[in-house]
Amino acid sequence: MGKFDEYNIDLKGLQTDTSEFEFQLDSLFFTHIDAPEIQKGNIQAKLKVVRQSQAFELTFHCEGYVIVQCDRCLDEMEQSITAHDKLKVKFGDKYADEGDDIVIIPESEGAINVAWFLYEFIVLAVPMKHVHPVGKCNKSMTGQLRKHLVTSDEEMSDEETSAVEDGSVEEESNGQQPIDPRWEGLKEIIDNN
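Below the sequence we write its predicted structure tokens.
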């Protein structure tokens, strides 16, 4: 038995026009997929297959969590996931991807394996930014971040410290860099003229 045999859906063999399937996607599933984006998680996936006149409509609903790296402290964190996606499957001579979420499978086989589709839908549901809630990041890493954000010998204010911890520090993202204190003296000369 192969790693992903349980994700085979025999479309030709479906007895009714509407069928439902459930899958529990745990860390073993993500390990078997062997893709770099997600390695661990626990997702409950439901699949509804509806036979139409010349195609099958597959509706996926995934809910649970995956383990991803925090963008701020680089520690692992749980990221909640909810995904709702559709895929249309048609029979043809050979495998093809027509775009617009339409897949063609050989009529001679009559089955589709949905493991990779489940993985892709989950990866697409992961937000671009994933950070721990305020105060939950690795303390030593936020300390290092705080150390590198300070541009003078003065301590960070409480407001600046909380900005580092909640991820709202945007100095690099908006293109403004802290001003080198040595330039302050030159600014005074220009202002006096």
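Strands lie at 8-10, 18-25, 40-51, 56-69, 76-92, 96-99, 102-106, 111-113.
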